# Entry
Amino acid sequence: MQAISCRRRPPRLTLVGVNDPVEILGSTSEELAGCARELLDRGAGCAARIYRCAHREGRFDPDGLGLGTAASAGWRDSFRFRLPTVSRVIEEPTERGALVRKAILVTHDGLEFETVDVPIGTRRSSLCVSTQVGCRMACRFCETGRMGLLRNLTAAEIVGQVVAVRALGWKPRSIVFMGMGEALDNADELLRALRILTDRNGLAFAHDRLTVCTVGHVAGIQRLAELGWKRLNLSISLNAADEETRRAIMPVAGRTTLGELQAALVTYRQRDNFQLGVHYCLMPGINATERDARAVAAFCRPLGRVLVQVIPYNPGSNPIARPPTDHKVAEFVDWLRDAGLRVRRRITKGRGVMAACGQLGDPALRARVRERRTQAEPGELSNSATE
# Structure
């Protein structure tokens, strides 16, 4: 992947100048040090300390490092540290007393997106991170899909979610790119964020603490494979293993057949003991029969080691099915196991605060953005929303 330019042009969906400051949260430590040497007359030697302070502690304070007035001013003029604003935090206790916590964050251009801290047991948690504001995949069971795509998040904004919630005292052990948006639809910024999150001088997440989730973006899966990260986790959102049903609930299936997706996953395997995650949102009346279970088993058979996670459907603002009963979930899990699959039932967490799988997002936000664009003078508003 191409290294960052000290005066690189930012992603096309945000209109800012070519000479805007370098984003500290959008750079690796090596890139930041190189830009500091190029742009600063003095103070470049503090790059490593500034990087650690920004990524691990959530603050940018060149003055506090003992730099002189001119050196500190140079850092502030040439570099930018910009966290998403935490608008509010909503919490819901689990049966074991741990908290599901959802943070509603705001970008610098006023768009809301969400990230969720999901407890694993009582002492660990996984952070469900967003990669887009909205999503253009339009899955019918997903609240985010009803928003449409407003814009991609930059690598700095993706990493900024992790830094912002750590500043709140959250300490996620792992990161799952399964929040708002299709991660591989924003592959350039996702891949950059992966490199930044694993930077040893920053947050230093191990590869096996990161999971990329996708609805089946074949080109993106191929780009992930090119990284060569053998311990990076991958999960797919399958939800139906016959073409007709999958197209009905996931429009992306009209562009990528199950055969093409299956071939990409067979090719992706990075190591002998790699385990692919297969997510299956169980919706009574749509994809919950024994025949559906047999089709899932047939799809998974060539993929090597897989773990199917059965996720009970969580209704959003416009439900397409009812939540499955515990008996229905157990029945479907048994069918999958009888077909030889390893299966785990996902325990629903955060449904009451719209923090569960498929519930992230605010469809009304798209209408507000459209209204704001209509009222703005031409050229007055950045093209942060796409149709």
Summary: The longest strand covers residues 85-93.
